[in-house]
Amino acid sequence: MFPILGLLLGLIIGLIWNLNIPDAYSSYVAVGILAVLDSVIGAMTANLQNRFNTRLFLTGFVGNTAIAVALAALGDQLNLQLSLAAVFAFGNRIFINFSTIRRLLLERWDNRRRPVPAATKKNGQP
Q: Fewer Cβ close by (within 10 Å): the C or N end of the chain?
């Protein structure tokens, strides 16, 4: 629940606060946002699987974002689009986590819709 609230709060602040990103930094910001989305969706998946760990989430959130931005910066220095590697990796993980979330939610939905078996009779008693 925490990651969803943080994502919604960030979206609301981002829409209200009109901040222009210079073109020179737009690729860094885009890759950073993708890394953040990957971490948040990964946290949602872990939460649904009852495996969420705050320390793991925070270190992944900061670490993935730093690596993605550093990769984009290195690519700019080498005149290569290394940021595409981050886009591919994070995009792939987002789709995998989304499919896992979808499967878990559908399983929970199906389990709630199944009828509960009638209580078994013991010793002829209803």
A: C
* pLDDT, tens only, 32-76: 989 989 998 999 999 999 999 999 999 999 999 999 999 999 999
Structural domain contains residue 5: no
pLDDT digits (tens, 9 = 90+) for 65-98: 999 999 999 999 999 888 888 899 999 999 999 9
Q: Is residue 19 part of a domain?
A: no
User: Do the domain assignments include residue 92?
Assistant: yes
Is residue 124 included in any domain, yes or no? no
The count of domains in the chain is 1
Residue 115's φ and ψ, nearest 5 degrees, are -70, 145
Structural domain boundaries enclosing 93: 26-102
Task: Give the separation between CA 64 and CA 35, rounded to whole angstroms.
Answer: 6
Cα R_g (the chain), whole angstroms: 21
